[in-house]
UniProtKB/TrEMBL annotation, chains A, B:
Domain FAD-binding: 2-381
Amino acid composition bias (Basic and acidic residues), ranges on this chain: 154-168
CDD domains the record matches: PHOX_C
Protein name: Phenol 2-monooxygenase
Similarity field: Belongs to the PheA/TfdB FAD monooxygenase family.
Species this chain originates from: Lepraria finkii
Length: 641, 641
């Protein structure tokens, strides 16, 4: 659905197929990182989720005190203050999915085709390097509605037993009635294929890619209940570690729900699985949480799972077929990362596919999907192994219960807090992220690949809190013409555009004013990047948008002190008043007026920052570095014909 | 639509009829006060409007400098900082209307019946005093669709010439086909009637009520355009006063629109009206704004109007038929108040009708509609006359152009800023607002009417920034169980409930803890107000909700330190974690932790505050004043049977 949101923005021809006959109704993932909410916000859909979800602000650790039961040993911040305008939020995956269903429904162009089962995948290798051919062939079967069912209470993604495939004879009636009494098959030819088909990915198996890593044999229970409890921290996220009865991760949720992950202390086998019910799970929880009580009368969903950390060696087939999410990495749910990293996989490949297919970007950019996202998955697996140590003592390792051996939960989270929030994700130097000259320069380039900007060197010191390869932080600035406060991020919508952020500095200074005028002339020139990469008949900001943020007092300058190209004129719509902003104090919001300081940009001299369509920073330079910026774009974008 | 929102909340049987065949599409009113947005927010619909609308933050005054054209003479804040979480917002009335259409569509129970024209109104006077009869009879005609048309570009509300009434013979086919080829008539019997039928109100005329006041003969033009202009303040609200060419009020809007109110310097007669087009209007604007340029290629809507201040002597007929909005008060659009005061009329009568019809409140409360809202209308007319002086010099009074004679625009607005924001509206002592003992006590009571709480005296000094009769200010507090910041106003949704806000003070203090326990016992007693006024089989918070805000450090107390009645237990849903809050610092929001100070409540001792269903404060007392609070409710609510 995340990739579909991009496909919708780029207006590319897209089909979305799902073998299930309905979307998820309950259960599944429920943790959203701050970064994921930022991404939602870039599509304009964060607010409903943010309001309805539980805000995971504090996490409490409870440990055992001898035989006297548990006590609160630690209260840590779920996320360090100031790193995002959102905090970790817990809400049902079904609501997330509905949010994107609703988003697509606004334009009404794309929708999920349900009851469509892929049966055969082939691609013409000789065509792989050629653009504008359709080398991928997928044969799909349009299932009869009664043959599939939505994921039920307690079932898990990828259990194929829910789908009873009939014999091939039925396929004869192909193309007659897609959803009627007979089952049609269909051949879909595609330029690109993105598979988000879960831990048992059919597509990954077609590509012959294994999942590499380890899996424990101990089974955990997970349940969504409305708790009846006198536990004082029931409405806070808690890691609870009893002396001998095992561990619980308690995650409050929307409405009155709580998600409990409960260590059941059983090996995974069919005998054990058959014994486990919500009742046996709550009994285990009662032992762990004693002397506090917990029970339920309403259980919304429950399931069982094993902990493992596994990853696919490749995330793509020939940069034509891409795999995302659980299809290429699986891990425990303990860090609330799964849904996030998976959606962010799709967020990463989505804009690249959009730009390549619509002809603005070179196919070279597609290779960065694997290099950027596989590294994130490796980091996630490492983090997951580390946090697993906190929970998995006792029952799984059969050690004794001395508190001293338990890893410090707070310190583990503290160490990885930027990663957990998704804010810390920093893509290495590549065609999409300029290089830097520093002590580790060799290492930086060693991670790169063909097409990397060996020759384009950024100057991150000009914006020392804006990290190359990371998403740009957002602070509030004011619209010059309207005095209205706005988050910088609100200007960086996921609409497929690159942005040049012109931190113009103090244009009341005559030298600075001259620098800005020269930059304006360069950008307005007939051979400028704006004119080179913008298709004829499209607005000048269609591919690369120039946004200006200056630092002069707002009331002492006017829009007309800036070059026209910074606020382009349209003959029917007049001047564009929504491209020039100022870092100044606001009348009704104490939180404005220090964006330059927070971003580490000189209030006098400013700088240039290039943001990719996904808000990650590709280039930082001085106002004069327009040639370097040109070379940066030259490696990525295709000139208009 | 505002009243319908209430009718939906109270689940009362309601019909909404409109003679027009479509809702407004463009033009009309466009200014929303902060208070109106607060009310929208209480129904959960502020956000879309707040995001899409123009935020009117600064207002600039431009005056003439001899013959050299205009200059910016003043830059004033549209609204003083800190008085509301919203600021004045400008957005098309059509979007407002759609917002409420969408709100009603969520439940789907109420909708506007269009093409329905009222033709006869009668009521049985002998039944007026009897509850549960239907003394009002309205005969309506279901018009054929082609006989009505939506308000067109340049037409104004109330121009009946758009509706061609056929002869009465057609009425014979009544009840056959409401919207078919024949025109049906229908008799509607009602307990209550609310008329929001505009300046030419048919209902007001049926009641024989005149509009009293004055009307000038000078005609103004109003137009919505996308401006092509080099005027530096085009995206700010501006009052522009030229030397001899007249005045303009410029109001930026959603999308790229601007609303211009232009003084045309013409007397209102059919000859002059016929001459005026958008082109003549923009020419007048060009003269006023010289040396700056203004023009348009796109005009969204335009109209003409005369300034007048008129009011009906009564807002109700026998407290069975109520009139709201333009039906009982008209004035100029210069203060952006019309849509607000009108919607707030309906907001005021809406909950009262809801509570009387659903049987929780005594019919006596209905008389407060006229006393509360007519005073607001009188204040509005006074303010409108005052601001009119700024605009109406020159052309209308033919005086010379010396700047010194122009009233100081900023000072006028400054003086009335709380009124303009809607925040200052304070209802006098009545059955719904307890009395106070102070130097003006006699005056307060003189304004009262039968049913007034002569014997219930509030203690506003215990919360000296919470004004009896005004809406309670909102600041951020934290949920005790979840640590999540929330606006106090978010707890005061327009769902028909009264709220007792228990400012519990510091319950770590043993004396205070005892006071709270005693209050809890009194509220939990079988004969408490909660039990007396809550219908059997309804939740204990269905009519009066108790919300607690304490001032102890959040992490040093727990929900279980408060009496059960403050967080009631439900046998399937467990404890209610969303009724106890704390005024403490937040991790991610610097704006928390000073609500007690801002509200003027002692952090140690706290107090009780009763909020009406419309968030206006009815009573303030000490934690022991439960008897006074009981008497307050006794005058208003009906005990369960």
């Amino acid at each position: 659905m995340m990739a579909a949101a991009w496909a919708n923005q780029y207006d590319i021809k897209t089909r979305i197929i799902d073998k299930n006959n309905a979307r998820i109704g309950r259960g599944q993932a429920d943790g959203l990182q701050a970064r994921t909410l930022e991404i939602f916000d870039s599509f304009g859909v964060a607010e409903g989720v943010w309001k309805q979800g539980f805000h995971d602000i504090e996490i409490c650790t409870w440990l055992a005190r001898g035989d006297e039961g548990i006590y609160r040993s630690q209260r840590v911040l779920s996320q360090k203050a100031g790193i995002s305008r959102f905090t970790q939020t817990c809400i049902n995956q079904a609501i997330i999915e509905q949010t994107f269903v609703d988003l697509l429904a606004i334009d009404g162009r794309l929708h999920v085709e349900r009851n469509v089962l892929p049966e055969n995948l082939s691609f013409e290798r000789s065509h792989l390097g050629i653009q504008n051919v359709y080398p991928i062939n997928v044969e799909v079967r349009h299932l009869q509605r009664h043959r599939t069912s939505p994921l039920k209470n307690g079932t898990r993604e990828g259990q194929k037993s829910h789908i009873q495939i009939k014999s091939d004879e039925d396929a004869d009636a192909a193309n007659e009635q897609a959803n009627g009494d007979t089952e049609a098959t269909e051949k879909i030819n595609a330029k690109y294929l993105l598979a988000c088909d879960g831990a048992h990915s059919w597509t990954r198996r077609q590509l012959g890619l294994p999942m590499e890593g380890e899996q424990t044999d101990y089974v955990w229970g997970v349940m969504d209940i409305v708790p009846l409890s006198n536990f004082p921290d029931i409405r806070q996220a808690c890691a609870i570690h009893s002396a001998t009865a095992g561990s619980i991760l308690n995650v409050p949720r929307e409405d009155r729900l709580n998600r409990l992950y409960i260590q059941l202390g059983l090996e995974d086998n069919s005998n054990n699985r058959a014994q486990i019910t919500p009742r046996t799970m709550i009994k285990a929880a009662q032992k762990i949480m004693a002397p506090y009580t917990i029970d339920f009368k309403y259980c919304d969903w429950w399931s069982l799972y094993k902990i493992g950390q596994r990853i696919s060696p490749k995330f793509s087939g020939a940069n034509r077929i891409f795999l995302a999410g659980d299809a290429v990495h699986t891990h425990s749910p303990k860090l609330g990362q799964g849904m996030n990293v998976s959606m962010q996989d799709a967020y990463n490949i989505g804009w690249k596919l959009g730009a390549v297919i619509n002809g603005t970007a070179k196919p070279d950019v597609l290779a960065t999907y694997e290099t950027e996202r596989r590294q994130v998955a490796l980091n996630l697996l490492k983090a997951d192994r580390e946090i697993a140590r906190f929970y998995s003592r006792d029952s799984e390792k059969k050690q004794n219960g001395a508190d001293t051996e338990i890893p410090d939960f707070g310190r583990i989270r503290e160490k990885m807090h930027e990663f957990l929030a998704g804010i810390g994700i920093t893509y290495a130097s590549s065609i999409l992220v300029a290089g830097v000259v520093d002590d580790n320069a060799a290492a930086v380039f060693a991670n790169g690949h063909s097409g990397m900007h060996k020759s384009v060197i950024a100057k991150p010191a000009l914006a020392f809190n804006i990290k190359l390869g990371a998403r740009i932080p957002s602070y509030k600035i004011l619209n010059q013409a309207e005095a209205r406060p706005v988050q910088l991020a609100d200007l960086l919508k996921s609409d497929g555009r690159w942005r040049i952020l012109v931190f113009a500095g103090d244009i009341k200074d005559s030298v600075q004013s001259t620098r800005i005028k020269e930059l304006g002339s360069a950008l307005a020139a007939p051979d400028s990047i704006l004119h080179t990469y913008t298709p004829t008949h499209k607005p000048i900001d269609a591919v690369i948008e120039v946004l200006t943020i200056h630092s002069s007092p707002r009331t002492e300058v006017s829009l007309f002190d800036f070059p026209d190209i910074f606020h382009p004129y349209h003959e029917e719509l007049g001047w564009d008043y929504w491209k020039v902003f100022v870092d100044d104090k606001a009348y009704h919001d104490d939180d404005c007026g220090n964006a330059y300081e927070k971003l580490g940009v000189s209030r006098l001299e400013g700088c240039l920052v290039v943001c990719r369509p996904d808000q990650h920073v590709g280039y930082t330079g001085a106002l004069e570095d327009i040639k370097d910026m040109e070379r940066f774009f030259e490696a990525i974008l295709i000139p208009r014909v």
